[in-house]
Specification:
The protein has helices at 21-30, 40-54, 84-87, 113-116, 119-134, 142-145, 155-175, 182-193, and strands at residues 5-7, 33-35, 67-73, 76-80, 94-101, 107-111. It has a domain at 5-52 and 107-193. By secondary structure, it is an alpha+beta fold. The longest helix has 21 residues, at 155-175. α1 runs parallel beside α7 and α2 runs antiparallel to α7. It contains eight helices and six strands, in the order βαβαββαββααααα. It has a four-stranded antiparallel sheet with strand order 4-3-5-6. It has a two-stranded antiparallel sheet with strand order 1-2.
């Protein structure tokens, strides 16, 4: 049986005096989050996938539950609102997969079947994940890992990363595992994946 908590955050300025667009967007990114307890391994996987999508270039505010399509265009990931079928022969680049953002602001990515069967593509994703995990070795806890403010991201991606951080922090808080070190979580996962002789 899983526990689900709905979190509602207070508006940053209830009187509306001097309210700023960014405060409204940050507040809006966390309103009505559906939070369920998650184990740290699941949080790392969801964080990697979500950050992978959020690194893509896009200039629109994503909507929860709507499908988007990730393309690689001249070596740059770009998120579009149009499917490969809608583009037809005018597709902007290599279609990577279909994405959508859930009510907890976690992104899912369904990889294009052709690329799933491409060992070079799969290896490149695995290498990116390994490099990302290697960078987590010095992170103190799962809580400090979460991107409260990702300066390197453009505006909408930064707002979505903020909401993602709040969502994952609340999920981990329900399990009492915010203080775990990411490197320990990775070590446990690798131990599970290593075949026993």
């Amino acid at each position: 049986m899983s526990t689900c908590i709905k979190i509602t955050f207070m508006k940053p300025n209830p009187q509306g005096k001097g309210s700023l667009t960014i405060l409204k967007d940050l507040d809006g990114s966390t309103q009505g989050l559906s939070i369920i307890p998650k184990n740290p391994e699941q949080v790392l996987t969801e964080l990697f996938t979500s950050l992978f999508v959020l690194k893509a270039t896009f200039k629109f505010k994503p909507i929860v539950g709507k499908d988007y399509w990730l393309y690689e265009v001249e070596g740059i990931l770009k998120l579009y609102q149009f499917s490969p079928q809608e583009w037809g022969s005018r597709a902007p680049g290599q279609w990577i997969g279909k994405c959508s953002m859930g009510p907890d602001l976690i992104w899912s990515l369904e990889i294009n079947q052709t690329l799933k069967d491409d060992p070079d593509f799969i290896k490149s994703i695995e290498d990116q994940r390994d490099q990302w995990e290697h960078g987590l070795e010095e992170v103190d806890s799962m809580e400090t890992l979460l991107p409260e403010y990702a300066e390197e991201l453009p505006y909408y991606q930064r707002v979505m990363a903020f909401g993602l951080s709040k969502s994952l922090k609340a999920s981990l808080g329900l399990t009492g595992q915010l203080s775990l070190k990411p490197k320990d979580v990775i070590a446990l996962r690798l131990e599970k994946e290593t075949p026993k002789v």
